Amino acid sequence: MAEVDLIIIGAGPAGMSAAAFAARGGLQVLILDEQPHPGGQIYRNVAQNRSKRGFLGQAYAAGTDLVDALDHPHITLLTGATVWRLDKGPQVTWSRGAKSQTTSAAHVLLATGAQERPVPFPGWTLPGVMPAGAAQILMKTAGMLPKDAVLAGSGPLLYLIAAQMIDAGSPPQALVETQTFPQMLSATPHLPRALFGLPTLRKGLSLIAKIRKAAVPRYTAASGFHATTTESGNILFSFRANGRDQRLTCGLLLTHQGVIPGTHITRAAGIEHYWNAAQGAFQPEHDLWGATDQPGLHVAGDGAGIGGAEAAASAGELAGLNILCQSGRLSSDTRNQRAARARAALFRARAIRPFLDAAYPPPTDILAPSDNTIVCRCEEVSAGAIRQAIREGAQGHRQIKTSLRCGMGPCQGRMCDATLRGLLSEGKASQPISPPRARSPIKPIALGELAALSPPQEEPA
């Protein structure tokens, strides 16, 4: 492949925004993304849905401008490309069409986005129980609408999906929400700052109003989730809400407890991470411009800290401007002047996060579920088995992995790391458990690809 100046991993709002600014500044940009079309999770298939699926809303349709900006002679977009290694140089190794290759660039931007937080409870692995975000992906890619569905968990995404289902003529059967009145009350000190993001607050209130107008039942302060299957193949969902035991029968149970940064590639790259207590997750260290402690590596978007689509696009713009400055295409003064709009937009977009983090925290019985709950879906390891291993002296992710294979399946810990951390932290001080080390390949690849690949070139001493 021809030499490029910047490699961007991820074609979500952060990656697309950074690519457009870098390309307009004269850099040759290569974007690598696993999906068949650009847009990331929030704007998935947005260009293909221009004239249809209006129930997804105006905020979703706004992503078309970012996708259209990729039509630039200095941008090469490769979809269906899975990045599985990142070396110093920096050098990116990626797989596409069952073939792997390594590409070097002076700069690499990691814009890999977020993942849904696991929501483990007895029965969460049953057919018909799935993350709410996964159901939204099906709505965007295939037009498949959830029917006879219950939404369970907490966070703004539940309201958005419920409103989209209502607009599509398939309203949810009920919303089962875990947030409590004391939690909402504790979030009120953050409201003055949240007013800087007033349009987002108004949007959230309008979603709740739409749900109420549609007469969708809402259960709050819910806990003790439990799912089983009925003889007819439906889901029997049990929980406790407002001091009473409740049962709902549904065809589909969609769960959500917020999102956390996807950090496998940033950890594998050796970037320093810190614990964000408010969001209950690790995220990579970076400065205002997204620059990390590793030479040539920047981060932007939800993979660098949860902020939402608008914040991601602004952070991508700042990273793109900084990379132009480091490449000698912009002076630092010009960079700073051009960054004023993006910095203001980033501040407004992030202003509401402290309120949301305080109002919709994941409950304790989700962070550290009961013993009979499967934690590692790949290896079918239960919370009880993990607690037993801890009592027998296992400490940290590595020893749990060695003794129980927890985190050694195809997902490489993406679906269990957060829950394992909660179990390891039970009964201990608030000091967070260090994140597990991530190793290459960070995504599964065929052995044939690995064998056929030439080793990365070492930098001269």
Summarize the structure in words.
GO terms for molecular function: oxidoreductase activity. This is FAD-dependent oxidoreductase. Pfam families: Fer2_BFD, Pyr_redox_2. It comes from Shimia litoralis. With 461 residues, this protein is α/β, with parallel strands linked by helices. The protein has three domains: 202 residues, FAD/NAD(P)-binding domain (3-Layer(bba) Sandwich); 138 residues, FAD/NAD(P)-binding domain (3-Layer(bba) Sandwich); 56 residues, BFD-like [2Fe-2S]-binding domain (Arc Repressor Mutant, subunit A, Orthogonal Bundle). Helices cover 33% and strands 22% of the residues. The strands form seven sheets. Strands 3-2-1-7-20 form a five-stranded parallel beta sheet, covered by helices on one side. Helix 1 runs parallel beside helix 10 and helix 5 packs across helix 8. The longest helix is centred in the C-terminal third of the chain and has 18 residues. It is globular. The model has no long low-confidence stretch (mean pLDDT 93).
Short key terms for the protein model shown above:
FAD/NAD(P)-binding domain, alpha/beta, five-stranded parallel sheet, BFD-like_2Fe2S-bd_dom_sf, 33% helix, oxidoreductase, Metab_Enz_Cyan_OpOx_G3PDH, 3 domains, Opine_Oxase_asu/HCN_bsu, 18 helices, FAD-dependent oxidoreductase
